[in-house]
Structure prediction request, 571 residues.
Amino acid sequence: MVVLSALLLMINNQPPDLVLLAATITFVVTDTIKKAQAWEGFSSTSVLSIGVLFVVARALEESGTIQLGVKYILGNTRSVPLATLQMAVPVALCSAFVNDTPVVVMMMPIVDQWSAKLNIPKQKLLMPLSFAALLGGMCTLIGTSTNLVLQGIVDKDTGPEKVKLDFFTMTPVGAPVALCCCCYMAIFGQWILPDGPNDGGANVDVEQRSYMVCFVVGRSYDGQTLDQLGLTRVPGASLPGVDTERTLQEGDVLEFCCTPRALLALCRQDGLAIRPLDPLHHELGNQRRHRCLIEVVLSHHSPLVGSLVESTSALPLYEAAVLAAHRVRSKDDKFRAGDTLLLEGFPRFDSQHGGSDQFLLCSLVVESTPHRGGHVEDGLRKYGAAIILVAMVSLVAAKVLDIFVASLMAAFLLVGMQCITVNQGFRAIKGRVILAILFCYGLGHALDNTGVTQKIAEGFVTLGKQLGSIGSLFLVFLVCACLSCIVSNQATVQLLYPIVKNMDIPGCTLAQFVVILIMGASSSFMTPFGYQTNLMVWPLGRYAFLDYTKFGAPLTILVGIVSAVLAHYLI
Prediction:
């Protein structure tokens, strides 16, 4: 009853970490599980590895390594199938070695702009982007945190049949599955996925706190139009009164109306250079990784009020430079009380000036470290981070180091190379995700201790003997895939492993079932809330709920069939 209640609460979007904690406490109080079983996850190096890999992924994102890897692979084509393949294959490959969430986060604006450049509806590419990341996670041990959770469970299992999950244990099944599914998405996506205009930033309503920001066009954008470059489709940004078919020339100045997030996205464009309002912006110094964006509203007491925008700098006063202002103005205007300004400075600005009577409002923009590019050391960091990633993967694959030690070393080196700060590294660790994983251990033990897993296993055995070994593998996959669409992937493997380890089907081994669990847990294709990357592309692509079901259900069946056959013959 407690397990069913927990599942229903998570289906209804209740926080899984709190639900699972409540369930675990209930099991301990009622003596269903022992305390050691309830908190077993806190001693798991696999769970610790997940936290460290969040830091590694954030460092790769900040250094530009992820974007660099895809930049040279995406090409130019007018064909939806070819565009889908060109996008899905490198994303799946990248996701096999980097956590899928930051891969999708990095790729969403790239795919949005790329689709505009190719004149292909972004709806044809954004859902395959999320699914490709999930497929890549099936291919290696570090492809997704679910695999590491399952490794921790398997390593602690003291049963008679011992299974060893190595770096590439699932690759013989996962890689062909990923390739087949990329072909499916390329062939059928053009018909099943909805059509829609690329209606990004040009048509969206501007948020209340948006700013007028000038950018100078660089040489790499010379001779191209705004529409081709996708600059009219950056979420949260617009170009009021500008012809989208206008051909740009080096040195042109574009005035965007954009939110702070959109400004950061525009700053990542290689062919654009921001022109800040503050004439002394360049004197902020070299501590770019420590900077952030700050929103302030000037009061009557601010020394900036009444001074000319063109000739006034906030740097000597606040150790921060004015990037942009909310009110439309030229540099001949003067600052006024009530003006909302966007500053670039340091986090200490809030403690030093937040309570000052010079500002009516002071707010730091969360996770707003400005883009670092254009310097030699930036390029070195980008390629150095790629080398560290390859070294980490190689050491784990060669069994020289376990995943926890290797990822810890990689994180230490990436922080030492100044790819991210220590504070950014700690903020990258998703604490509530880790807690949800930790509290899943008690749930699995409760099902095992009460005999529920044994009863379900007996039901699977009875049905499996009629279906045969491949049919049994497919049945386990289907249950796993459906469950992963409504609860977390980690909870899914925690629930189902105690069941499959008790199944005795002729022709099936525990190793085969473990690989099938990996395939099924990452097959969250049928609902938008099945996985966080599905949720991320949902609003940007303006998908309907049933779009996921129509496109994801056949994909799930395909993954199940191919996985069951390959696991039977190759594992």
Notes: The chain has 23 helices and eight strands.
